[in-house]
Design a protein that fits this description.
211 residues, alpha+beta, OB fold (Dihydrolipoamide Acetyltransferase, E2P), five-stranded mixed beta barrel, 5 helices, elongated
Length: 211
C-alpha cells in the first residue's frame, strides 16, 4: 500500500487528485474510493492517505481504498501501559482529594467539581478525536486547555492515553503540562492559611451550583 497527499478536491463532481512525487504527478481518486464513507475529503486536502493503486473502467490508473495515515479507532481495546499509568495517576489524585475532604481540609463540592470537569474534558477529547477522523470541525485546543486548567486535567490525561489523542504535538503537550502545574499550584494555595478565605468563597459558589 502506497502513501500520498490529497492535493485537491472537487465537491460538486465528487473526485480529486493525490499528489505523487511532490507536485509533478497526480493520481485520480473518486469519492467512492475512501474506506471511511463518513469522511469529508474537501476538509482533508493536504493530509496524507494510504491507498491501493488500481485502474478504472477505461484502464486509467486511480487510487482505491484510501485511509487517513495514522487513523485509529477512537477507543482502542489493545493493552496500553500508558493508559493504565494515567488511570492510576488520576485515581491517586482523586483518592488524595477524598482524603482531604474526610479530613475537612477541602469541601466535598470541590471534589465533585473535579470529577465533573474530568468527565467533561474526557468527552471533549473523544469528540475531538472523532472529528479529526471524520474531517469535521475540531474542538479548539484552547478549550481543551481551559477545561484542564479549571480541574479537568485528570480526565485530559486519561483521554490522551486511552484514546491515543493529542500525544504527538509537543506544543500542545507543554501547554497541557502548564495547566496541570497551575491547577495544582492553585489547589496548594487554597489549602494554605492565606487561601482559606478564597476556599470558603469557592465552596459557597459550588454549593449553589451543585444539587
Amino acid at each position: 500500500m502506497a502513501k500520498a497527499k490529497l492535493a485537491s478536491w472537487n465537491r460538486a463532481k465528487g473526485f480529486g487528485f493525490l499528489s505523487l512525487n511532490g507536485e509533478s504527478k497526480q493520481l485520480f481518486v473518486h469519492i467512492s474510493s475512501f474506506a471511511d464513507k463518513k469522511l469529508d475529503p474537501e476538509k482533508l486536502v493536504g493530509l496524507w492517505f494510504n491507498y491501493t493503486l488500481a485502474k478504472d473502467k477505461q484502464g486509467r490508473p486511480c487510487a482505491k481504498q484510501l485511509r487517513l495515515v495514522g487513523s485509529k479507532p477512537a477507543f482502542s481495546t489493545k493493552p496500553n501501559g500508558l493508559a493504565k499509568r494515567a488511570g492510576m495517576t488520576a485515581l491517586a489524585f482523586f483518592v488524595l482529594l477524598l482524603s482531604l475532604v474526610l479530613l475537612q481540609k477541602l469541601p466535598l463540592a470541590l471534589l465533585v467539581f473535579y470529577v465533573v470537569m474530568s468527565v467533561v474534558t474526557f468527552v471533549l477529547y473523544a469528540l475531538d478525536k472523532s472529528a479529526a477522523q471524520a474531517g469535521r470541525w475540531r474542538v479548539q485546543e484552547l478549550k481543551l486547555h481551559v477545561f484542564a486548567l479549571i480541574g479537568g486535567w485528570p480526565g485530559a490525561m486519561l483521554a490522551q492515553q486511552t484514546l491515543r489523542h493529542k500525544t504527538q504535538k509537543q506544543s500542545f503537550r507543554w501547554g497541557y503540562y502548564c495547566t496541570v502545574l497551575l491547577n495544582i499550584a492553585a489547589l496548594a494555595y487554597l489549602l494554605s492559611p492565606n487561601g482559606e478565605p478564597m476556599l470558603l468563597d469557592i465552596n459557597q459558589a459550588l454549593s449553589s451550583l451543585l444539587p
